[in-house]
């Protein structure tokens, strides 16, 4: 018995994904003064976790669970904390793109405000190790504030190994200061460059009217962006695109409205069907032979669902399709 219990806690070098949930978006997205809808838009998720002996064995024999080597999920030397921070940042970026697309489509102005640089990961054995953490937001260097991440990088690149810079950053809503001495990077990709040893992305805030809030809690990744944009747009405009239907879907969204490929489409079809979705919007990838759309159609046939699978390449395609739907009786 003790051996069986121990095996349940022993992690294997794999991740297992399985069908997650289909979650209605109206309760988590609120546009001030937004319009109501008769049906609903739903995001779909997969559940991803480290494999143990039992979850690996179950996934091996389950049609709609998938096993991934760690290297396919996490970057080289990426810790669990850094992976989680990266996923949450991808979610934040998808929300910004969704808001921009929806507001521009509705003819509303969109403005961005630069907030600093966001630490994605800290490189081992570089000066930032032990001083900065994934999730920190750096907004000031040597008393200078910047208007873009490029300005930040250009400023640091003008320094020499051995120079010390003062960073002001935010962590858990508290402001901190630290001094870090620059070193040369040791990897071939950054040969000749100096820095503190962090991976970073630009942190910016979007300013729109009416205001919108998107509460995603601990959901990570970029794959809900497309459905966010539809829910936001639907609340901004008077005509109800749901027409009374339960509409699920998935896909990344770019600021230009392009809908991108995601992972786990098979599991998301299963989740949407269990939640009672009647329509599923899937990335078409311009008709590629291994597109999310074709995989979704195949899975829908296998599970015998009546859910309609609709191919989508661009946000405008979805708006056009939904605009032509007949009201549900």
TrEMBL record:
Sorted UniProt keywords: Hydrolase, Protease, Serine protease
Organism: Bacillus benzoevorans
Keyword Ion transport: no
Enzyme class, UniProt record, top EC level: hydrolase
Reaction(s) catalysed by this chain's protein: Hydrolysis of proteins in presence of ATP
PDZ domain boundaries: 98-173
The Lon proteolytic domain, residue ranges: 218-325
Active site (catalytic residues): 223, 268
GO biological process, one term: proteolysis
A Pfam short name: Lon_C
Sequence similarity: Belongs to the peptidase S16 family.
Known EC number: 3.4.21.53
Phylogenetic placement of the source organism: Bacteria, Bacillati, Bacillota, Bacilli, Bacillales
GO molecular function: ATP binding; ATP-dependent peptidase activity; serine-type endopeptidase activity
Official protein name in the record: endopeptidase La
């Amino acid at each position: 018995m003790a051996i069986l219990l121990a095996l349940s806690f022993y992690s294997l070098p794999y991740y297992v994904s399985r069908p997650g949930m289909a979650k209605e978006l109206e309760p988590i997205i609120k546009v001030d003064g937004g319009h109501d809808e008769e049906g609903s838009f739903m995001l779909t998720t997969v559940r991803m976790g480290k494999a143990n002996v039992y979850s690996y064995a179950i996934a091996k024999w389950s049609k709609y669970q998938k096993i991934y080597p760690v290297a396919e999920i996490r970057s080289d030397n990426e810790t669990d904390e850094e992976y989680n921070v990266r996923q949450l940042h991808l979610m934040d970026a998808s929300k910004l793109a969704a808001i921009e697309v929806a507001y521009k489509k509705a003819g509303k102005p969109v403005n961005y405000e630069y907030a600093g640089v966001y630490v994605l990961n800290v490189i081992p054995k570089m000066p930032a190790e032990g001083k900065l953490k994934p999730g920190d937001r750096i907004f000031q260097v040597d008393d200078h504030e910047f208007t873009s991440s490029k300005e930040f990088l250009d400023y640091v690149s003008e320094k020499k190994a051995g120079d010390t810079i003062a960073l002001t950053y935010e962590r858990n809503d508290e402001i901190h200061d630290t001094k870090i001495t620059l070193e040369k990077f040791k990897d071939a990709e950054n040969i000749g460059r100096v820095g503190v040893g962090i991976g970073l992305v630009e942190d910016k805030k979007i300013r729109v009217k009416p205001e919108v809030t998107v509460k995603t809690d601990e959901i990570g990744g970029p794959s809900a962006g497309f459905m966010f944009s539809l829910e936001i747009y639907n609340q901004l405009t008077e005509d109800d695109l749901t027409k009374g239907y339960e509409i699920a879907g998935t896909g990344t969204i770019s600021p230009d409205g392009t809908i991108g490929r995601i992972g786990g489409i098979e599991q998301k079809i299963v989740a949407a069907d269990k939640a009672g979705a009647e329509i599923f919007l899937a990335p078409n990838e311009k008709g590629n032979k291994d597109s999310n759309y074709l995989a979704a159609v195949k899975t829908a046939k296998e599970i015998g669902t009546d859910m309609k699978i609709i191919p989508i390449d661009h946000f405008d395609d979805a708006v056009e399709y939904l605009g032509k739907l007949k009201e549900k009786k």
